[in-house]
Amino acid sequence: MNAAGIVVEYNPFHNGHFYHVNETKRKAKSDVLIAVMSGSFLQRGEPALVDKWTRTKMALSNGVDIVVELPYAFSTQKAETFAAGAIQILDHMKCRSFCFGSEEGQLDPFLQTAARLYEEREALNECVRSSMKKGNSYPTAQTLARETLFQDQPLPLDLSKPNNILGFHYVTANNELNHPMQPLTILRQGAGYHDEQASGHIASATAIRNLLFDQKQADHFLPHSVLSILTEHKQNGLIHSWELYWPLLRYRLLSIHLDDLNAIYEIEEGIGPRLIDAALKSNTFLSFMERVKTKRYTWTRIQRMMTHVLTNTNKKEMNDAAAHVSFVRLLGMTENGRSYIRAIKKEMAVPLLSRTAAAVDLLSLDIKVSRVYAAASTAPAHYTEQLLDHEFSAPPILL
Amino acid sequence: MNAAGIVVEYNPFHNGHFYHVNETKRKAKSDVLIAVMSGSFLQRGEPALVDKWTRTKMALSNGVDIVVELPYAFSTQKAETFAAGAIQILDHMKCRSFCFGSEEGQLDPFLQTAARLYEEREALNECVRSSMKKGNSYPTAQTLARETLFQDQPLPLDLSKPNNILGFHYVTANNELNHPMQPLTILRQGAGYHDEQASGHIASATAIRNLLFDQKQADHFLPHSVLSILTEHKQNGLIHSWELYWPLLRYRLLSIHLDDLNAIYEIEEGIGPRLIDAALKSNTFLSFMERVKTKRYTWTRIQRMMTHVLTNTNKKEMNDAAAHVSFVRLLGMTENGRSYIRAIKKEMAVPLLSRTAAAVDLLSLDIKVSRVYAAASTAPAHYTEQLLDHEFSAPPILL
Lengths: 399, 399
Description:
Chains A, B: Belongs to the TmcAL family. Chains A, B: Its EC number is 6.3.4.-. Chains A, B: Its main location: cytoplasm. Two copies of one chain form a homodimer. Chain A contains 19 helices and eight strands. The first copy, chain A, is an alpha/beta fold. Chain A starts with a strand and ends with a strand. Chains A and B meet through helix 11, helix 18 and helix 19 of A and helix 11, helix 18 and helix 19 of B.
């Protein structure tokens, strides 16, 4: 069987994702589509709108055959690490190709850019380091370094665009595999990644989340199946947002020892007292973020730090877990997906795990993280209980 | 001026406390009454019903001239350490006498018992140690050891009664001072310490708290001034109970590393996984406690452990803070109390602190603890804010 892979968050699944699913199948001529999907916390350092099981149902209802989890150690990281984890997992799943949406839309610029940056990697790293010493954030330092180094012969890819950046890192990570997959890209349709305005039938996930947080209709931008999954979810569960975790995060910041705060992943020496002081003064996550944000510490960067404070994830455990992909966690599959898994399972280089109960050591970080996700304030007791039980003992979803 | 001291929790102040205040003044022939009062968390490992400022007002409205805080490092400890801290503080405040309520009611049995246990202290400790090795709790081991050692000549004091135990430790701690104060005791009136039933105008604080938790009238058992202070408090603030902290404690237990849990004060190696497992299964503090309680781990003992988990207080910081009294924190005073403080302040051996802002290092444990107390779930934002501000920058209450 010919499997294609995609890397997704589905927060939530929308019409743009539906287009991506179908275009991938068409371009890859695949008969199985595998999505590696972030679990409870996402790349921009946010809790997922709805739990991973509900998002798995959305995917399986809309053309995806297999959903595996991108573990916390990769899902909450900067593009480079995020992409490396995702590509390794698709490789473990024996995908022949993978396909990502990009603002660029053509593959060649990615391949050429990857090749040129690889040639210049040492000069580039040096440039980024010295720029960060001057107080620039990592993304700004990268942009400046590329502008300096390639001013005579500009790179063919616009690396200021978020999906181009991710795509570039997918291609780079793929190049590092023993047997690279075939990369494919499609032009992103409709609104841009960060756009909060919607147009046509396609809106960014950000715009759709804002509609959902405000309890407004987002029907126009979501497949029917997703709408009914969301409606069913809301009868029993929550729409998760950072505000629901603010009482817990605030409590943690008000009681943590400074040494322990400094040991949290991505926390830099010196920012601790500033975080604690802001927590003292802030009644909401939003006002906390407004207080803490600076030019150096971008919104996304602070959100990622706060995700790790909330989940109590320290530098050591994160670095250990992100060192390499040591398992693949299966969240759900269709019948078609099941046949594929039967065919490849014995050939896989890492274990394919169906239940966390079977591998509590390998999954310890993800188990902890999903427990914190389930402890959202205002969550009804039965909902928290259901999430905790599901995580630990339920089999993958079969749709 | 002749100052007398009392050790109190006032959770809340009731008619029995009013009797204690007046009897102390009469017996001690004092012209100033000083109460050393537990702050946010109490000896049985519970959050105080209302914050320390509200309880200070209750005391000052009912005959107490000065309220100083029994720091967290003493207020949440077993009788021996609790008493040692309280007696040292009253000594620092230059009290000539102190007076405690007891089931016994006469002083001589306390003095004789203290003398005999002092003589037999080595045999006794040996007995307690070997009894605990057999799985008995500390209080049970003490009782059994005394029964064994003094079976021919029983001690004149019934040390199965909670206020007799406390009184005994006050007397013992007092004996260790360079210049011991004059001990005094009065017979406790009305209901016993743990009685949940009330009779007459005096009910135990436990019975009164249960009435208040159930939103029933407790008017009969409280001075009028306390009733109006409570009524005013409820317009703006909360009646605190363990249940309000359960979402925070549960979150903490679900995200803490086992090593860090084992480092928490009073947590014994081996109980950690049991606590975490119970937290996973319990939607309320009450159901958690029912799951965790055993013959070895009494209710009070687990509540104290949970207090330290909630406040993230580890063995090292607690042992350091409880090693000796290094400051006295002034919570409130009457005009009469103020005159007394002016007279003694310069003679005091440790600093008398009015604002935490002035001594953040000395008070670091108490500052952290009062922040956690203020972070109770369901607390309205303005109330949390008020508690945080008051703790940090407000002067003592002057009534």
